[in-house]
Structure formats: structure tokens, C-alpha cells
């Protein structure tokens, strides 16, 4: 142990400082590696956090003395996997995370007696906005939502009352946008939560400034009708495209067809009146019957006796027969018939949707595989294209001239993913970082071996033979290093000689004049020729005393 201490002292302050720095760096590096590779397994506590929620959570975890890791620029926090459930329950009891907004927990705070009604109304409005924002964030693909409510108060002695309104700003979790049913759902959720608020008074926009719902538009206005017609057109195009695409994929394979349907909205208002006569259907409308019959008959065969016939101046008429007959018969009938007639009035409101054209893009067909197991693609024949065109035209109710079928090879899915950036050749940044970590680890290991382990081992191996040599020559040297001729009582222990040699080794190493190898050789000479060495030493002593 003393020899090791002497060897360490012999290094000097500069070498000791360098060796200490290397040892400290090595220990720190090993601690880092062990902590990173052999640490406790962690799990996600919360993800997609706002900066406010992340700050609150980390502050609370520090108070709980719980280790945690922050990833994804503060949006994700990881804790030991066995502490996830307990930590979530603890934070939920304290209302964390709150989503960056405050809700009805604002009323849990102590309110002073001097709090005015204005402050209470503002707190109520803030709480309602915060709760609505939390509700909207529960919808899929919505990361954050901010709600602004305008609830006008009715002034005294005022007959007019303003309607409430609202605006919503959405922050999406991905590039996917909300569909129209989801936007309508948000409008109805807010309208049902705020008194006297109508869905058409709610405006919704996303973080890119795209207007998803227009506020302040009456449901019966022309603008609302046009907007509704446009939405119906888009929905109709998507439905027809999906139906035709599913039909084509059953023939050529899944994912090998893309269909786009184009529809048109007719915004003209049309009034039609149609009057149709049917001559084959007759109906008796009126009838008139007239019957006129006259019959007259006169006969005078035996004249009658009168006074004139007996007067002397009278003349007697000749007797004879007189006959007169008259007969008249008239019959008239009038029938009026009406032809069947149908009158139809049609009124067509604007907004009718009609499919105009369909475009179909189909992929090449696979004919086999090459030596590299890559698919061999071939274009489809004209007969196949014609059959697909006829099929699509029949399904869409269009003529073949309104259907276009194009055969082109589809791009590979791997082509959509950009390759990682390279630095030298095919080396990426991740590869460079990995190589740098390996190189740093190897460099630290080499420095430790060269500057710490190798010198220590060399000094330890040098000290052991030196002590052995000193023990062998202890019988020839007396006190104070003076040689002696004999043994017995006057013999000095080998330990004292060894100590003196160690002091000489330390002195020579410090001064840089004598090496340990030379001392070992001297020790060997003393062991082989002890008498000659004693004679030489006595001669040196006599010369020094005579001088």
C-alpha cells in the first residue's frame, strides 16, 4: 500500500490533475450510459399538452419528487410505468391538465365579499367558454379549441334585443380537416349550451384561417340556400365516386382504381304548365231533346139544316162531301260531348343536382415478378378499357361519351415518403450521430487505458522487482547505506535497505536522472558479486575521507 501511495505521489501535480479529470469524465459517462440503458422503464403520462399544462404538471411532479422525462418539445411527459395510474389520479383530483383554459373550477376559489356582479358575470362567461372548449377537444382530430361568446344584456327600457353569437377557433391534431357533419355537431353543441343562441349564429374557423361555418346567415336566405346546395353537390360527388370506385375495384383489385365524379347544380327556377287532350276519352257534357207533333183533320159529308135554307130568298146549297186533313211531326235532339283534358303545373326550385361526367384512373395490371421480386406491370387492353367505360356509364346513368377511363401506372407508396437526408454517400444524420457516440465511447476508453490504467500498472510492476532486489542486497549494506563485510548481529534488515532504495527511486524519478531499470541491474550485480561491490564502496569511502 505504501508503495502504491509513493507511486501516486511520484506522478506529479499535472499528471494527477489530468488523471483525475479523466477518471471523473469516465465515471460521469458510465453513469449516463447506465441511467439511459438500465434505468426504470417509463410510460406516457400525458401527450399533446399545451405549454401551460406542461408547466403545471412538471411543477407538481417536482413537488411529488417523482422522476419524469420531457419529450416532443414539451408536448409529452413520461414517468415510471408503475406510477402512471397513481399520478394521473392525483393530477386529475387537482384539475390538471385543464387544456389551457379554466372551467367551472374558477368558482372553487375563494371569493371575497367585495366581489362585484360584473366580476361574477365575467367569471361565469370564462367558465362557460372553457367548458365548451374542453367539450370540443373531445372530438376526434381536434387538438385545441378556443370559444368566444357574445351574450348581450338587455338594456332598461329597450324594446330591441340583440341575439347572442359565438365564434370558435379550432387547432387540428393532423392535416385532416373536419367534415361538414362534425362542424354542424359543434354548432349544435354550443347552441344547446347557451340560452337563445341559434346554430346559424356560430362561426367556426381552423388554425389555417379556413372558414368552416359562416355565422350570421339565416337559414332561409339565398346565401344559406346556395351554401347548402354546394354542400349537397360535394356530398353527392363523393358518394357517387365511392360507389363507382367500389364497383371497379371488385374487377381489377383493391386500390387499383381512383374515381372522380363531377356534378352540376342548377340554380334556375322553372315554372311549367302542361295541358293534354285525349280524343279517345269523350264525356257527355249536355243534351237537348225537342219533339213538335201537329195533326188536323176536317170532314163535311151531310150538311146541317139551317134557317137560311128555308127562306124564300135563300138558296139551297148543293149537297156534297167536304174533307180537309193536316199532320205535322218534328223531333230534334242535341248531344254535346267534351274531350278529356289534363292540365299540369310544375315549379322547380333552384338546387337540382345532376351528374355530368365521371373520370376513372386505373392502374396497370400485374403480369408476374422479376428476379428481384418486383411486380412486372403491363397496360390494360383496349377491350378492358371499353368494358370498364361501359360498366361505369351504366352505373352512373350517363352515356359512354361522358365517361373517361385512363390507364396509367400508380406511383409506389414508398415514393411518397421522402428519403432521409444524406451527408456523405448513404450516411444519414442518424448514422452520423450513432457513429459519433461509438467513437466518443472508444476515445474515452483509450484515454482511460493510456493515461490511467497503463501508468498505474507500470508503476506497480516496477515497484515489486525493486523491492525484491533491495531485499537481496540488504545483507551487504549496513546502517545509513554503508556496506558491511559480514552478517550476524551487525546485519541490517532488508526492509530498511528497501526503504532507502524506494526513496532513491522516488528521488530519481522526480529528478529524472535514474530509471528503475538501471536500479534493477545494479541490484542484480550486487547479488552476483557482493565482495567486489563491498571493495569498491570501501575505496570510494576512503577517497572521500582523504579528500
From TrEMBL:
The segment(s) forming the Flagellar M-ring C-terminal domain are: 250-410
Q: Where in the cell is it found?
A: Bacterial flagellum basal body; Cell membrane
Record field: transmembrane: 16-35, 435-457
User: Chief location of this protein?
Assistant: other
Q: Report the source organism.
A: Elstera litoralis
Q: Which GO terms describe its cellular component?
A: bacterial-type flagellum basal body, MS ring; plasma membrane
Return the NCBIfam families for the record. fliF
Give start and end of each Flagellar M-ring N-terminal domain.
41-213
What name does this protein carry?
Flagellar M-ring protein
Keywords from the named record: Bacterial flagellum, Cell membrane, Membrane, Transmembrane, Transmembrane helix
Give the similarity note: Belongs to the FliF family.
Q: Where is this region: Disordered?
A: 280-333
Amino acid at each position: 500500500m505504501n508503495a502504491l501511495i509513493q507511486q501516486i505521489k511520484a506522478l506529479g501535480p499535472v499528471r494527477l490533475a489530468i488523471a483525475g479529470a479523466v477518471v471523473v469524465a469516465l465515471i460521469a459517462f458510465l453513469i449516463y450510459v447506465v441511467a439511459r440503458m438500465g434505468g426504470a422503464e417509463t410510460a406516457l403520462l400525458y401527450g399533446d399538452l399545451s405549454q401551460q399544462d406542461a408547466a403545471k404538471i412538471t411543477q407538481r411532479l417536482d413537488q411529488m419528487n417523482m422522476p419524469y422525462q420531457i419529450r416532443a418539445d414539451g408536448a409529452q411527459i413520461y414517468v415510471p410505468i408503475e406510477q402512471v395510474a397513481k399520478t394521473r389520479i392525483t393530477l386529475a383530483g387537482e384539475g390538471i391538465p385543464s387544456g389551457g383554459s379554466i372551467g367551472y373550477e374558477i368558482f372553487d376559489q375563494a371569493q371575497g365579499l367585495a366581489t362585484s356582479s360584473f366580476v361574477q358575470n365575467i367569471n361565469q362567461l370564462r367558465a362557460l367558454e372553457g367548458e365548451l372548449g374542453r367539450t370540443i377537444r373531445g372530438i376526434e382530430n381536434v387538438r385545441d379549441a378556443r370559444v368566444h361568446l357574445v351574450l348581450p344584456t338587455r338594456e332598461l327600457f329597450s324594446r330591441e334585443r340583440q341575439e347572442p353569437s359565438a365564434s370558435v377557433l379550432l387547432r387540428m391534431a393532423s392535416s385532416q380537416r373536419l367534415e361538414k357533419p362534425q362542424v354542424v355537431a359543434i354548432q349544435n353543441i354550443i347552441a344547446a349550451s347557451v340560452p337563445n343562441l341559434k346554430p346559424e349564429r356560430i362561426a367556426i374557423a381552423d388554425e389555417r384561417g379556413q372558414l368552416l361555418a359562416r355565422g350570421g346567415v339565416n337559414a332561409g336566405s339565398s346565401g344559406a340556400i346556395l351554401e347548402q346546395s354546394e354542400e349537397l353537390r360535394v356530398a353527392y360527388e363523393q358518394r357517387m365516386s365511392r360507389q363507382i370506385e367500389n364497383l371497379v375495384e371488385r374487377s381489377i383489385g383493391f386500390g387499383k382504381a381512383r374515381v372522380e365524379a363531377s356534378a352540376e347544380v342548377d340554380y334556375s327556377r322553372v315554372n311549367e304548365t302542361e295541358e293534354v287532350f285525349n280524343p279517345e276519352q269523350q264525356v257527355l257534357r249536355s243534351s237537348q231533346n225537342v219533339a213538335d207533333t201537329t195533326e188536323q183533320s176536317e170532314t163535311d159529308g151531310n150538311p146541317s139544316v139551317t134557317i137560311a135554307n128555308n127562306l124564300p130568298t135563300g138558296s139551297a146549297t148543293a149537297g156534297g162531301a167536304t174533307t180537309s186533313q193536316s199532320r205535322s211531326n218534328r223531333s230534334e235532339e242535341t248531344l254535346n260531348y267534351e274531350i278529356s283534358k289534363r292540365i299540369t303545373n310544375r315549379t322547380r326550385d333552384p338546387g337540382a343536382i345532376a351528374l355530368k361526367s365521371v373520370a376513372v384512373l386505373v392502374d396497370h395490371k400485374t403480369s408476374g415478378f422479376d428476379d428481384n421480386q418486383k411486380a412486372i406491370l403491363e397496360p390494360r387492353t383496349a377491350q378492358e378499357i371499353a368494358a370498364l367505360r361501359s360498366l361505369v356509364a351504366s352505373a352512373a346513368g350517363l352515356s359512354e361519351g361522358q365517361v373517361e377511363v385512363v390507364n396509367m401506372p400508380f406511383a409506389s407508396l414508398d415514393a411518397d415518403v421522402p428519403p432521409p437526408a444524406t451527408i456523405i454517400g448513404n450516411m444519414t444524420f442518424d448514422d452520423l450521430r450513432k457513429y459519433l457516440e461509438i467513437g466518443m465511447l472508444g476515445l474515452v476508453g483509450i484515454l482511460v487505458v493510456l493515461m490511467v490504467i497503463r501508468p498505474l500498472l507500470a508503476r506497480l510492476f516496477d515497484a515489486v522487482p525493486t523491492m525484491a532486489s533491495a531485499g537481496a542486497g540488504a545483507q551487504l549494506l549496513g546502517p545509513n547505506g554503508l556496506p558491511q563485510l559480514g552478517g550476524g548481529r551487525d546485519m541490517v534488515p532488508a526492509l530498511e535497505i528497501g526503504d532507502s532504495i524506494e526513496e532513491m527511486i522516488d528521488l530519481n524519478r522526480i529528478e529524472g536522472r535514474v530509471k528503475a531499470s538501471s536500479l534493477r541491474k545494479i541490484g542484480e550485480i550486487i547479488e552476483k558479486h557482493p565482495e567486489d561491490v563491498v571493495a569498491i564502496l570501501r575505496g570510494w569511502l576512503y577517497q572521500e575521507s582523504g579528500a
